[in-house]
Design a protein that fits this description.
CATH class: Alpha Beta
Strand content: 15-25%
Number of helices: 8
CATH superfamily: Aldolase class I
CATH architecture: Alpha-Beta Barrel
Number of strands: 8
CATH topology: TIM Barrel
Shape: globular
Distance between the termini: 9 Å
Largest sheet: 8 strands, parallel
Order of helices and strands: EHEHEHEHEEHEHEHH
Bound molecules: D-xylitol-5-phosphate, zinc ion
Amino acid sequence: MKAMISPSILSADFAHLAKDIDMINRSEAAWVHIDIMDGVFVPNISFGFPVLKYVAELSEKPLDVHLMIVQPEKFIPEVKALGAHVMNVHYEACPHIHRVLQQIREAGMQPAVTINPGTPVALLQDIIREVYLVLIMSVNPGFGGQKFIEHSIEKVRELRELIDRTGSNALIEVDGGVNLETGARLIAAGADVLVAGNAIFAADEPEEMIKMLMNAH
Ligand code: DX5
Ligand code: ZN
């Protein structure tokens, strides 16, 4: 099965963002992955809405927005204003996750929930029918270029089982340390969407790498 690819611009050249977004526009990538950090939920800060406004204007691909922030529901209007396709919030950042997912849907975006490496798939049981997508973090969030956590493969299999058992249509996305080798195994385990930062932007031919990741086996 072919995977959808969502290149993470966290690994792009911030001095020449337009050039990297053009590359994504020309490529076979499905979406653009946007990592928003607050220095509280994760130990790093990336970029905020004033910068993303320009990214959104330049991108011809739907935006896959991954919020690594506390109280992400506060920013539903801002994410909507970007024209986002998917709004990803962390399970660990939302005590009222069910309500937040509904608010995202009511705002006209596709609701997605993200789980950290230390959060079990089983906790998604009661919200799996409410989400368009589940994002499994295969590194601890905050930085690009980290080593893939092996247990993530097992989590993808478990999530595939949960989705099949409950009749949910949720897509499975994986983020962190994805390359041709881990990507192939994630696709085999049931992943639908692969996020990749370093593997794409450090490649000699990023467009070609996107194509190879799509077809990794
Ligand atoms: C990590 C971010 C990822 C990151 C992935 O906190 O959520 O999207 O950019 O980067 P790589 O693919 O380099 O691990
Ligand atoms: Zn991400």
